[in-house]
Each structure stands twice: as structure tokens, then as C-alpha cells.
Specification:
This protein is mainly alpha-helical and 196 residues long. 74% of the residues lie in helices and 0% in strands. It contains nine helices and no strands. The longest helix is centred in the first third of the chain and has 33 residues. It is elongated, with a radius of gyration of 21 Å.
């Protein structure tokens, strides 16, 4: 065998491994959304079209898979906040991101807890900081434009939205969560300046 043939075979194996990992993450996202963090790992492998051995080669245990899925979801949430920084309306951007964060918190209810219970070295604090930073970015822009209260902090918003997600976790539809979000948004708006 030539060195070129060996290199090509190795590139093909790396490509296959990367594609398998992506399929596993996509399947895990679906299955964890449907069945929660205790979902069957065999079902995840089946939906990804790979064997259990392939799943365990990429993700040695449930916690590493949960961490990867949650990490991807948080990355997408933070990327959305970054994209919204250039939106026409700073107030609308804040509302859209808080809505996305609420959907994220409701969809991932239990995943962070499962990681904390089962794994001593979790990325929980890093994930929390990423979310705080994303919230701070969209909030600061709204405050700069005068549409959000100056005394509001990113931590306040994250706690309020997390509280809504926890309080409405058992509701099958998101109607009550959206109503509570509307109340938070109303409270977050800067009070109109009185004319003197």
C-alpha cells in the first residue's frame, strides 16, 4: 500500500467518524427532547443508524452525551443572541432572545440536573456564564436604546425566565409560559420619561 492510499483511507475514516458523531448528536437531541435525559441510549444509536459500540466510542457514558447535546443547544442559543445584536429593534431583539431562552429552558428541563446528579465535574457553571453573557449582550443594547430598565441585570432576566420554565414545566402547552414571559417583558421596559 502506498502512503497516499493510507492517507486517503485515514481521511475517509475520520470523515466517517465525524459523520457518525453528528448523526448521534442529532438523534440524541430528538430522543432527549421526546423522552428526557433518561432516554434509551440504544434508541439513540438506532435512530442514528449506528450500533451501540459506535455510540460508546464517541460518548463513553450518558453524561458525556448529555453534556455534548446541552453544549450544542447552548451554543446555538448564544449564537442567536449574537445575531440579534444587529436586529433593527433592540427591544424586539431582547424579546426574541428571551423567548428563545424560555423555549430552551423548558425543552432542557432536567438535563442540567441529570448532569449535576451523575457527574461531579460538569460544565454547568461554564454554561451558566455563557447564557449570562448572551443575556447581557441583548439587554445592554436594549438599555443603550432606552427601551429596557437601567437597573435590570442579565442575572435578573436569567433567574426570571428560569423560574417561568420551572413553574410551567408540567404544562403541556406553552401558553402560560408565554403569558408570564409577556409580564416579564412588560416589567423590563423602561418607564416613559415624564415631561417637566
Amino acid at each position: 500500500m502506498t502512503a497516499g492510499h493510507d492517507d486517503a483511507a485515514q481521511r475517509l475514516r475520520r470523515t466517517d467518524a465525524r459523520l457518525n458523531r453528528e448523526r448521534l448528536l442529532a438523534a440524541a437531541h430528538e430522543v432527549f427532547t421526546e423522552a428526557g435525559p433518561g432516554a434509551s441510549l440504544n434508541e439513540i444509536a438506532r435512530r442514528a443508524g449506528v450500533g451501540p459500540g459506535t455510540l460508546y466510542r464517541h460518548f463513553p457514558n450518558r453524561q458525556t452525551l448529555l453534556t455534548a447535546v446541552l453544549g450544542n443547544r447552548i451554543q446555538a442559543l448564544c449564537e442567536y443572541a449574537e445575531k440579534l445584536r444587529t436586529a433593527d429593534s433592540a427591544d424586539g431583539a431582547l424579546a426574541q432572545w428571551l423567548g428563545a431562552f424560555l423555549a430552551h429552558a423548558r425543552a432542557n428541563h432536567g438535563m442540567g440536573s441529570a448532569l449535576m446528579v451523575n457527574e461531579t465535574d460538569t460544565p454547568d457553571s461554564d454554561c451558566h456564564q455563557l447564557i449570562l453573557d448572551a443575556a447581557a449582550g441583548v439587554l445592554a443594547r436594549a438599555q443603550h436604546h432606552g427601551s429596557a430598565r437601567a437597573d435590570l441585570t442579565a442575572g435578573d432576566l436569567v433567574r426570571l425566565i428560569t423560574g417561568i420554565a420551572l413553574a410551567t414545566a408540567r404544562d403541556e402547552d406553552a401558553e402560560s409560559a408565554h403569558r408570564l414571559l409577556a409580564l416579564v417583558l412588560d416589567a423590563a421596559h423602561a418607564a416613559p420619561r415624564r415631561s417637566r
